[in-house]
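Archive entry: two folds, one per protein. Generate the first.
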Amino acid sequence: MRKLTDSRVKLGLWSGVGIVVANMIGSGVLTTPGFMAIDLAPSHILFAWLVGGMLALCGVRAYAAVAEAIPRSGGEYRYLCELWHPALGYLAGWTSLLVGFSQPVALDAIAIGAFADTLAPGVNIRLVATAAVVGVTAMHAFDLRTSKISQNALVVVKFALVLGFTAIGLVAGRNQFPGWAPEAAQGGLPVEAFFGSLVFIMFCYSGWNAAIYASEEFAAPRRDVPRAMLIGCATVMVLYLVVNWVFVANLTPAHFSEWIHGDRDRITLGHVLMRELIGSGGAKIMSVVVIIVLVSATSAMTMIGPRVYAAMARDGFLPHVFAGTDGKPPLGALLLQSAVAVFCVWTQSFRGLLGTVGAVLTLMAALTALGVVRMRFDARFAHDRPDGTALGAAAVFVGVAAWMLYFAFTSPLLNTAGVPGIGKVAAPLVWVVFVMLVTAIYYTWTKVTGGTRVATETRGGAK
């Protein structure tokens, strides 16, 4: 049996970049600008996406310092275990399973079904979504080489299609700076609307840290994981700016309003734009493009998410059946995530409840970035001390994360959730209950099993 140490089945830099790009690019960039255009002028929309990209790059720089010091798989689970306490890592691991990967896989799969319905009206959207989850699970279940090649191919096709869409917009569309004003025009920059939009832009940029979840599967994790995050995030930032330029240069408030209240065959702004530029068949072409984009994102999350639960199982936090074996994908962990995703596909209320603890993901990322400060003074990291750039980037990222948490607590759009059998409750209450429940499970599990192996493992990994 080929071992995991065989570099022929290891990930390289460009596979890592592909994982990051595949996780970042979704349908969000094809919808968010339409809502932004209600309050923001074209220049403000472009500036907001630039600011969002720079903030994401701050997160990349902070995480790069941690990834160089702890080149092991598991993402925030691994980092928080080693930087702070295994209980925090345990919380991050369960958050990854329930919120970070399974739920987005389910949502993207449902979106695949919705776009398939625009091509073949009447299809069962949830059955299509289930088939998508099962399909990408099979693609990543048995062989690392097949998983790697398939994911790389999907990324190439996805990137080519998105570039093709932007090329059509640049060549066939208008390229002079737009002069339209939003419906709710104000003098100067509308600060509240700008920062409110930035929250959703940051969600569109999420995924920049995707490479950290499979660090041990890189041939040179200390070198390639940070570079993959940087190149991938910078590439997506440029692409997002070009896509938004195409939208604001070619669409007007009338288009945005029509899209918000429009018919079923123009689900994204991309559909509106393609119809305007190349005719009625453009919407169907756009549906194909978005389906490929979503399949690629679903595949990437299906590939990397189970590495978190496999790391938890190897550390004794989950049954050993989820740990996997050398040279093979972690089949047990993969099936676990996919089962949760399928359950989310068919259980709308459960998925809505999980959405209320999404802020815990932001908290985990902030604690990881804050760990950069601890590394500066921790003797364990004497040979991997972060420099001033990493510390500054971490400070910016923590500040932004704190603001996003505040927004999530106070925004009427985000601070309530539907709980089966209860109805609407404040999201902060759900977050507190989630954290308390997982913490109780952690201490019960460690007491029953006699502890974990996290504290006794040495730091480090493949050079």
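Generate the second and append.
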Amino acid sequence: MKNESILSSIPKISYTEATPEIDTKEFVKVVESRRSVRVFDGTPIPEAVVESCLDLALLAPNSSNLQAWEFYWVRSKENKEALVKACLSQPAASTAAELFVAVARTQTWKRHSQQMLAELERSETHVPSSAKAYYQKIVPLAYSLGPLSALGLLKRIVLFFVGISKVVPREPVSKSDMRIWASKSTALACENLMLAFRAYGYDTCPMEGLDSKRVRKILHLPKDAFVVMAISAGKRAQNGVYGPRIRFPKDQFVKRI
């Protein structure tokens, strides 16, 4: 297919972007000092810092730039109390200065692909026609499942036979595939958010221990949305980290083939 050129060929573009110098030691310090802090000391976080961290979270890489994420900054006393309870009243939530819920969306790709097309049309630099075709044709084909996921089933069958002789992407072809797809991008943004807070001198704790049904009700989430994790933030208390970091041997996870 002609439209595949955006994936397999280098497009002719005039855009260039300067690469800033990075202080590697400071980045290493941020990553190594990020811990899951379970107790915070009550120090408030300036609103400007929170806004900056959220901005940095939204710079995370994501699938086809479709940005299948939403971050709920839970601020009202009533909602915070409800969220703490939904997070099992764990200290990481109850002592936090700020609480966020990272939500993934499986259907916003339709609207976001149209936004991408509009952005490409407004671009002052040359945009390859293959890039526009990607959002016009490839994205709807890749992410549409059809009524009762019938199109997804058809894609699964077609891709099985096409894949016998040709390299093809096999997913997403089901609702569970779409949840995985959206979760990947959202999780990347969550890491950005946590590292951003650490860079500003604050700490975080990602929490999967929560009642997702109650969290959905608190946030009034639509049907296609699901909770990936809650994230608490604040200044760590002296007893905020429960013990030294434990990591298993590197060779257990890094495979050289």
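Annotation attached to the second fold: DSSP finds ten helices and four strands in the chain. The chain has a mean pLDDT of 95.
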